[in-house]
Amino acid sequence: MKIFITGGAGFIGSQVANMLIAKKHDVIIIDNLSSGFEYNVNNEAKLIKADITDFGIVEKIFTEEKPEIIYHFAAQIDVRKSVSDPLFDAKTNIMATLNLIKLSNDFKIKKFIFSSTGGAIYGDTNDRPTKENHSEWPLSPYGIAKLATDKFLNYYFEIFGLKYVSLRYGNVYGPRQNPYGEAGVVAIFLNKMLNNEQPIINGDGKQTRDYVYIEDVVKANILALENFDKVGIYNVGTSLEISVNDLFKEINKNFNYKFKEIHGSAKLGEQKTSCLSYEKIEKEMSFKPETNFSEGIKKTYEWFKKTNSK
């Protein structure tokens, strides 16, 4: 099938693109390369350098390319940026995304597969691992925008029949993650430590996250396409909570515990806990995370070490 991937030069999108190409799909990538990299793009994919906030260009691409499936990864991904500049976040994560959904409906796209968020949508909850039917109380404009998209997708399915899957990820980590933003603590810590810089843990470090390895996230995205008639919201995580302190220790293990555990001030808008149940996607699509945390950190360390030495 002809598949259109927004943000296909980025961390997750580029690796989903690789898998789709391996499965003989025709892949077209739109990316403004603000956080993705052209070297991530598979040689067999068609890259269109454009911004999804340019509605006219996006509609022109739909008209000319006539895609059958949409994978939407392009986003403003920094939770703290969304807190400091909610209007900028909404422009990309709500308005540009809504435009893509509307165009998908207008052009009779067969399925819209969306990269959403688990932790940032549910907020701090005592019900962990958290299921998809839990009440949603996002604590950041980023989480609010992702939740709004889920609601718009459901609206377009119920009223117009546009099939969709929204994948609510835990904290995704692994090779190709960009270490130069505020998002992606694993990549940020590894990059600093490989450059002999001391990482700083925000707050007391007891905040917990569900860290899910990139290969498992790619697998979930492929299953969302292959289980074509499945529609709705699915968590993608490991159902395991890991504190930032324990994350630091696991990474530091690869450096023979060279670095001290140093804490800084807590960040505004950062929630305390996040852990997702993957029971629904396991039951309906046979998804199960296969990479345990220690193994995933080791593989990520080896990749960053290799790329850092180039």
UniProtKB/TrEMBL annotation:
Alphabetized SUPFAM superfamilies for the sequence: NAD(P)-binding Rossmann-fold domains
Gene3D superfamilies: NAD(P)-binding Rossmann-like Domain (3.40.50.720), UDP-galactose 4-epimerase, domain 1 (3.90.25.10)
Organism superkingdom: Bacteria
InterPro entries referenced in this protein's UniProt entry, alphabetically: Epimerase_deHydtase, NAD(P)-bd_dom_sf
Coiled-coil residues: none
Residue ranges of the TM segments: none
Pfam families linked: Epimerase
Domain (NAD-dependent epimerase/dehydratase) ranges: 3-237
UniProt similarity note: Belongs to the NAD(P)-dependent epimerase/dehydratase family.
Protein name per the record: NAD-dependent epimerase/dehydratase family protein
Biological source species: Candidatus Acididesulfobacter diazotrophicus
